[in-house]
Design brief:
This protein has three domains: 197 residues, no CATH class; 39 residues; 87 residues, no CATH class. The chain contains 14 helices and ten strands. The chain is 48% helix and 15% strand. The relative contact order is 0.11. It is α+β, with helices and mostly antiparallel strands.
């Protein structure tokens, strides 16, 4: 192993604690120029019993508070958990919200200080997903924003779109745009916040001509426990990646860091074995029903929704189709249809 895996939390933090590295990543992903970046406190007590929440990386660039979190494991609660982080990153701005002086007239002159929430800045929460793609098969990333409900109603109005009356559609679109263009009392603030899921596996596969691609290719190469110096020749000469490689250099790792890598790898392999066991059980039960043409029904009756989830997870992990076929007894062609069937 030449470089430690960037996708492991400890090494992600070790690399991104360098503000210049973090700034360059954000510039490449957001396709913008960042004049300055302020690294913010990452660990906070947020409940009465002082339970802690800790972000992998938190910073502020001009007018935006940003979280970047590395998600290596498959988790069922990623949507809710990162929405909570997203909300917390807004709430934590209370630390520095200025107070406004207001004159209160009740028979005598009184001055009251209240927080001026107009100082709240938009939040970007960026979740770097190592293996999981949340069911998005081709997108490099997905971005969620808070938009007026009229927008989703417009897109999902099947009756409107089935009518194929362009004038009626354009009139409804005009109504949507009117709502979206409302700037009164900063109501457009809601749409400026973004919750982004970045899919390393899709990015590496898609090979788009985007600046951010090289970051994920670099991370993917460091995942190989047999990675070698020549694997990273293409990154040499770039000051940002040179510094990253210096920080991940396996020759300077402590005994504790080496042990951490081994524990993480063993844990991940155990998760894979556990998932594969569920997958096999579900497929075997599906086989009992004798329904190769009804794979969906067989899986539902045999392995329930868990088997379906694990089957899709195995496809997401790019497990060889012949191995899946050997485990399940289905033909390779049938396995290829699994994604569409389910």
């Amino acid at each position: 192993m030449y470089l430690a895996p960037l996708n492991y939390d400890r090494f992600f933090k070790k690399v991104f604690s360098d503000s210049e590295i973090a700034k360059k990543f954000l510039e490449d992903f957001l396709d913008t120029k960042i004049e300055s970046l302020e690294i913010l406190k990452e660990k906070h007590a947020v409940t009465d019993d002082a339970a802690f929440v800790e972000f992998d990386f938190r910073c502020r660039i001009k007018g935006i508070h940003i979280i970047i979190d590395m998600q290596q494991w498959y988790k069922a609660d990623v949507s809710q958990r990162f929405y909570l982080y997203h909300a917390l990153n807004t709430g934590l701005q209370l630390e520095k919200i200025p107070k406004e002086r207001i004159l209160v007239s009740r028979g005598k002159r009184q001055i009251k200080k209240v927080k001026d929430y107009r100082a709240l800045e938009p939040v970007y929460t960026m979740i770097w997903m190592v293996d999981d793609t949340l069911g998005f098969r081709s997108q490099d990333f997905v971005s969620f924003t808070m938009t007026p409900e009229i927008v989703t109603d417009f897109v999902r109005n099947e009756k409107l779109w089935n009518r194929k009356k362009i004038k009626e559609i354009m009139n409804e679109r005009a109504n949507v745009l009117k709502v979206l263009s409302n700037r009164k009392k900063n109501v457009d603030f809601f749409g400026k916040n973004r919750l982004l899921f970045l899919f390393q596996k899709n990015i590496v596969k898609n090979q788009k001509l985007a600046k951010y691609v090289r970051w994920f290719e670099f991370a993917e190469k460091t995942r190989d426990k047999e990675n070698r110096e020549e694997d990273f020749k293409v990154f040499r000469g770039d000051p940002t990646f040179d510094e990253m490689m210096r920080r991940l250099d396996s020759s300077i790792l402590t005994d504790e860091e080496i042990e951490y890598i081994e524990i993480e790898r063993e844990s991940w392999e155990e998760v894979n074995r556990h998932d594969r066991g569920h997958f096999e059980d579900g497929l075997k039960e599906g086989l009992k029903e004798g329904r190769e043409d009804g794979l969906k029904e067989g899986l539902r009756e045999g392995g329930n929704n868990k088997a379906i989830e694990m089957a899709l997870a195995m496809r997401d992990k790019c497990l060889d189709l012949n191995i899946i076929a050997e485990i399940s007894g289905f033909s390779v062609e049938c396995i290829k249809k699994l994604e569409h069937e389910v």
